[in-house]
Amino acid sequence: MDYLLAPLAHKRSLGPAPSAVDPTFVRRRDARPTRGAPLTVVTRAEKLATHPEALASAKKRAAVLHAFAHHELQAAELFCWAILAFSDAPAAFRVGLAKIARDEARHFDLYLSRVEALGAKWGEFSVRDWFWQRLPDCERPAQFVATMGLGFEGANLDHGQRFESLFERAGDAESAALVRLVSDEERSHVAFAKHWFEQFTGGCDPVTWRENLVAPLSPLVMRGPTIDREARREARMPEALIDAIERYRA
Ligand SMILES: [Fe+2]
Ligand SMILES: [Fe+2]
């Protein structure tokens, strides 16, 4: 709760994850994060540059990394939200959420530091709080790990490979290495989601996964233009689920 309500300037790090959860925590599905200056939240964010020629501009690369920083911020906040929202879930699951929240806050800081190194500032580009518009509709922890972990974090594995290569082609090895580092760390988050989805539902098949996505989300927003099968396999995603996600096309 403290992290959710902290001023935006103080969200670049999150204290060590606890080894146990406080059993006196009350259920707080209505918890929402602080927003306001310097962050401008809009309903439609500007399209990010996805061509190496456009990414030759440091400002355009900073805009992409700023969007990634904002994704990581929302992830850090939403993992904290899930601890509050699913207060009846197993303690080991909630401790795991706290550990991931800490990773996400670190990813947020890493991306923001790179934005600053490229000469831009936090809040310089407007953002869309899209994950916050969707994830709080999760009523059960199985829906949260299906949507956030297997869905969005799984998609991040595809996008990671793509943007690493785009930054490399644009001559920005440092940004490419950062995308690679974050993407590598996301694999364990997807594996966490897969483990707990199995615990909650008894399996990890495509039909049960699809049934647990919060409406109106479609699997189409949970994949990149090309699927990084190797990364998804390393994240322990079952082959049948990878196949099903690959078959969804616009
Ligand atoms: Fe992350
Ligand atoms: Fe993550």
CATH architecture: Up-down Bundle
Contiguous low-pLDDT stretches (5 residues minimum) are none
| Bound ligands, each once | fe (ii) ion
Question: What integer is the average pLDDT?
Answer: 92
Shape: globular
Oligomer: single chain
CATH superfamily: Ferritin, core subunit, four-helix bundle
- Helical run tally: 9
Strand-residue fraction? under 5%
Helix content: 55-70%
CATH topology: Ferritin
* Total separate domains: 1
Structure, explained:
This protein has helices spanning 2-5, 58-85, 91-117, 130-134, 141-169, 173-201, 206-211, 229-234, 239-247. It is mostly helical. The protein has a single domain (44-247), classed as Ferritin, core subunit, four-helix bundle (Ferritin), CATH 1.20.1260.10. Helix 2 runs antiparallel to helix 3 (91-117). The protein is globular. Residues 75, 100, 104, 153, 186, 189 line the site of one fe (ii) ion.
Describe the protein's topology:
Layout: H1 2-5, H2 58-85, H3 91-117, H4 130-134, H5 141-169, H6 173-201, H7 206-211, H8 229-234, H9 239-247
Helix pairs in contact: 2-3, 3-6, 5-6
